[in-house]
Amino acid sequence: MGIHEQLAQSIREGTLKSDTDILVIASGPYISAFDAAVGGRFPAGVRAHELSLAEQVPEAIIGDATQIVVEVDPRDAGAMRRLSALRNDYPHIPLIAAIGDASVSLVRTLVRQGVSDVVALPLEPDELMQVVLEASVRRDTQPRPAQKLAPLVAVARSIGGCGATSIATHLAADLAEHAGDAGAVIVDLDLQFGNVGIYLGVNARGTLNDLLEAGDRLDDDLLTSTIGEATEGLSVITAPEAILPLESVDIDQLLRVIHLLRQRFGYVVLDLPANWTNWTLSAALAANSIILVCELSIASLRQARRRLELFSSVGIESSAVEIVVNRVENRLFKTIDLDDVSRTLNHRVLGKVSLEAPLVSTSQDQGMLTNAVHRKSKFMADVRKLSQLLRDSSLKRED
């Protein structure tokens, strides 16, 4: 029995629903090979779309897909990023990874990342049909909630002391005001020198470490017991009290924490540490937008450029990185301006934040936001502009 007949019989028997829409995404040679294997005629309920290995999948292509079969190469950062994006953006659609040579360890890794199953390349119609049927059964017996994940922004610093945490906390507060009842949460990922809780005057009952050590006990109840409240709508997960080794973080557990937060809140903000490790890069890769904070100094711009090179080397798209210049003084004569920053970094600048050192430091010492101390703060006004730009683009929510 060919794949056409198998599909028709499965629909008649109720194994597959009549509205089945199996989307196959692969590069040209594999699509051509599959086309030849089915005799040049794709069966009803199956459609194929040709995309290069790392090319992102436009939303229009997804359409009403009930299952997605996508080509994956673990050696290609772009391909893995595409896989993560599909899993994050369409958690309710079973995802099948099509891979050339899948080891047992790789299959386990992909399954932990939310992949329903793995199929070999080049695609064999009979094998594909079997995997599709099994995924369909799992979908019906364990349905995934049709839920969009909240936008995720990671705030990084060019050098220590450039004011990234100040921007992260105020950005999170503004996002919370535009998140409706869902609110926003800021997570202090600086395990050794985190100050988010201090800056916002939060004494939470738990810390990030409680979530990282929870293992399989991680759930919404544990999350609730760990979260602190800063202002109305803004929740906080503080850094651990004790200094922890950076290498102690389990990447998979951290990503589970982030995923749970994105299911619960309207926006999620990560305050990243100054040091870069595999887990900080994994968190950055999961973000819709990375805010790279720098200052108008040679040292800061030099390190910002190195950060951009690091991001590029691990497959982070240039479009996902936004440069924000902090502590900009309104002086008539300037040695460096924002255009100079853009040319130096060969990267666009999202915007600037005015220097209000006494006000910002004084409010943070009191555990308050600047607008709570001074309503017409230039600092907060600039952060609001940045927030608006982000909400209109990379952090746009679909309510």
TrEMBL record:
It comes from the Bacteria. Keywords: ATP-binding, Nucleotide-binding. The keyword Cytoplasm does not apply. InterPro entries: CheY-like_superfamily (IPR011006), P-loop_NTPase (IPR027417), ParA/MinD_ATPase (IPR050625). GO terms for biological process: negative regulation of cell division. The keyword ATP-binding applies. Transmembrane segments: none annotated. One of its GO terms (cellular component) is cytoplasmic side of plasma membrane. This is Pilus assembly protein CpaE. The lineage of its organism: Bacteria, Pseudomonadati, Pseudomonadota, Alphaproteobacteria, Sphingomonadales. The gene is cpaE.
